[in-house]
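By convention, each integer encodes one residue's backbone shape. The lines below illustrate.
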Amino acid sequence: MTDNSTPRPAILVDLKKYRIRIHKNTLHSIGTPKYVLLLVNPEEQTLAILRSNPSDPRAQHINMSSFDNNKSFELYSRSLVTKLRDICSSWQDNQSYRLYGEIIPHEGMARFYMSEAVSVNGVDS
């Protein structure tokens, strides 16, 4: 469990815009990586963000200069967001869901349980 001085890792999944927004503090919590992998476990309904490197062709590059004016990193993927929606059948189209997670420091990973997602209306943050 995290203490009150450290924000909980969080991401937002926006089913309307097919967007995944990774909050800056989440990336800082796993060592401010320049590359990450998004891992999905359908059986456990989990989504994880794993610190990675440029040699992995599946890795997503994090543009650190985008954080100058933003509090999050955004990526857009219709296929990934649709797959997440299929895995978590309680999610509704055109809604946004905030997921709070846990940091696994020795793995350089943040893990989120999709079944614990909180519906967020009119989210733009």
User: Anything to note?
Assistant: The first helix runs from residue 24 to 29. The helical segments are 24-29, 78-87. The radius of gyration is 14 Å. The CA atoms of residues 67 and 117 lie 25 Å apart.
